[in-house]
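B., you asked whether I could sanity-check this one before it goes into the benchmark set. Here's the sequence:
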Amino acid sequence: MASEENEISKTVQDIEVETTDLQNKELENKEKSEDTGDVTTNECDSSIDTRQKVDFKVIFNKQKYDVTFPIDETIAKLKSHIETLTGVPSAMQKIMFKGLAKDESTLNDLKVTNGAKVMVVGSTLNDVLSVSKPSEKEIKEAAKSETSSKEPLSKLKEHKKVLDKYGKPDDALPGLKNVKEPLPPTPVAGMCNKSGGKVRLTFKLELDQVWIGTKERTEKLPMNSIKAVHSEAIVGHEGYHILGIQLGPTEASNYWIYWVPAQYVDAIKDTILGKWQLF
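And here's what the prediction gave me:
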């Protein structure tokens, strides 16, 4: 009997030891699991974008898109995001917010706030590819223009005749050579066309239009319909340019404007075309 009792006592002790070992292992596994869980949580937390964001509307082609974007991101980054929404390649976009926004500017730089409206001007690749082909007459006239393009524009017969006949308009704005300025808040006036008629340019950014005004009428042109903008300083009057707004596929369709103040030429080009030009 004593022998049986000893064996039973030993068995009970072994069971208690095994139970204790199992409990210790379970406790260790639990602690390891908790430690691993903490690391995973921390890793997840670190991937969360905690930057300040701003909610605003992007308007393109009369459609509105709700956008939430980090306020410290650049316009270049915003263009990439807008491309996914509208299909307009970022290189073909112009972002308008209180004027033309530069790629390197941030939303914070531009003071974009919640509820603001940001306009996008541009064309999808399908729009670009659908541009009509030039006629034979336009091709011939363009070739003729290229042949004579070695001479300064102001020395070419068609332009020299206008400059000599009409001269600089009395109300021409002061022209500044080697200076770049943003567009003034008022229309750019004091210029003339090929017939000597007075011309003013008004930029309607909210409509994506440039208005060419004369005494007789005002032409309201969608900016994305303008293929190119050409310009060159007037020899002897370098504070002013001859500027051609290309309305068709070739340079033969230029609408020429004379005595454009040189300081506004780059701003005019950027506003109409942005930083891209396909033709």
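One thing to flag: The radius of gyration is 35 Å. Otherwise nothing jumped out at me.
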